[in-house]
Amino acid sequence: xxxxxxFLVGGIFCIIGQLLIDKTKLTPARILVAYVVSGVILGAVxxxxxxxxxxxxxxxxxxxxxxxxxxKGVKEAVAEKGLLGALTGGVxxxxxxxAAAIFLGVxxxxxxxxxxxx
Length: 118
Fold this sequence. Notes:
This protein has one domain (2-111). Helix content is 83%, strand content 0%. The protein is built from 7 helices and no strands. The chain has helices at 2-23, 28-45, 48-55, 57-60, 63-81, 84-93, 95-111. The longest helix has 22 residues, at 2-23. It is globular.
């Protein structure tokens, strides 16, 4: 049942993204930023945490989950370290994901050679 919940919520996020691409003039970069910012806002309002508890990876893996993780890390660090936590909390809470993305990006760049289009 957990897999079904994760698939359902992740799929809804994908459907929303595809509709934004197809029906608006928003660029993929703006949609990416909108997803991250909406994760921060929904986390701050308290709506995203119940979704994470219900859907698990379906809510934490998409870009909205990254925004939620950033905001959650900042909130915890500010409570612990004060104003300095506002600068360090987000990066600290998402460091594992950022490091994995950089490492895997470099690994793929070394393993595969780009080909020109056409």
